[in-house]
Amino acid sequence: MLGWVLLVVLATVVATSATHMLRERERHMDMARLRLEGQLRLMGEHVGGLLQAMDISLAGLALDVAEHRDTDRPTLDRMLAQRLDLLRPHAMELAWVAPDGHVVASTGPFPGPAGPLPVAAVLAAHRDLLRDFHVAGLPEPQGPHGAALPRMLLSRRISGPDGSFAGAL
Question: With a threshold of 0.70, does the pTM exceed it?
């Protein structure tokens, strides 16, 4: 009889211990989930603030570029390079693309595979959809250890003095 009592007590202790361990694990998982949600919220706020700052910078540059449309190409390239220095490390290159798709001025080639397709999509968004600010995702090249590096193409509409479409930055 004493053996059965000890067996029941032992089973109760094991069940209580297992329940306690499962509750602790669930509590740790909840804490990790809350920590991750907080980090994601902070990252979202950082990215949102960064996009807003880039939009403001591109808006100012769009106004400057519209005023200097008749300036020679080397002067425009230098002006874009000065603005790019202010936007680093968040921006890789700046370019002024005319409504027909040719590059009027730039700080260098588009990084990676940002060829004619993203440029055409950006121009269409600004010309046809009348968007002032446009964000487009770019293909993600593989980084070190196979990690993908997220990249975006931010653009701002340039309007002529009469409000007509004069290109995009």
Answer: no
